[in-house]
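Q: I have 330 residues here and want to know how they pack in 3D. Can you give me a structure?
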Amino acid sequence: MATSTTAVPLEEAAPRRSEGQWAIVFRRFRRHRLAMFCVGLLTVLLLLSALAPLIAPYPRDEPNLGGRFLTPMGVDADGGVHILGTDHLGRDYATRLLYASRVSLGTAFLATAVASTIGILLGMLAGYFGGWVDTLISRFLEIVATFPTLLLLLILASILVQNINAIPIPDWLASFLAFMFAVSEREARIIIAVIMVLAFFGWTGTARLMRGMVLSVRENVYIESARALGASNARILFRHVFPNALPPMIVDFTLGVNGTLVAESALSFLGFGIQDPTPTWGNMLGYAQSYMFQYPWMPLIPALPILIASIAINYIGDGLRDALDPRQRG
């Protein structure tokens, strides 16, 4: 008696390839709809800021004293339409907002990158070597963490910005950032000074987190095996320890960008950070608050991007935290 056999499709018969770790993380992250929406929102902000010199309707610093305080969609004496109105000097608000996005977001990302690099390196050294190395780094971390941050931010930023030529900043770095932010070299040096100040106070949380991660993995079997095979400390740190501590660092970086963005905006708002004519969201808000009762729309224009970017970065961090959590399924 003949038996019938059912043909099995080749796709089902072949064993499925297992997903990699980062493919699983990306799949989990895509399920976080609010985080994905915020990624799109932040991408639009970054694209607009990057294309500022190409899409800005007016020159960045061109004053028009006859067209001051125009409301959104206002028309000046020459017939020019100002989509978001003009400021106290008659400069186009939309143009300055585009350039301000470039400076504020760029400063936040660079300052956080510098702070994270410092924190990761010091945290790895403290956690891996222990002993007097851990004691020295931990005590220095505690001293910096106990500083009154806002007060010292104001003092240091004021001193460095007012004495910008006293800082040994390489010309190539100033030229590169001048091109990146579409500003003059002197303005680029001021931005570098603010980045240095923000980075100096922003590395302590990252260092604590990295130290804890290193302490939790340094005695694992694969670390002992690498050490027994003669791997150098540098190789163990960067080949074995750092990759296993990377997921929390990614989340920490996104949340650090949020904090740095708010800190830079606060410095500029108070007049101790990046100064006019270089536009940032903070100093635009600082000038607008002087006229907020006569022209209540003025402070809303620079305040909304700060709010939108902060919320977007925060939700992206939440999405990454959920996606990188090893306890999550699927």
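Q: Anything worth noting?
A: Residues 29 and 284 are 35 Å apart (CA to CA). The radius of gyration is 25 Å.
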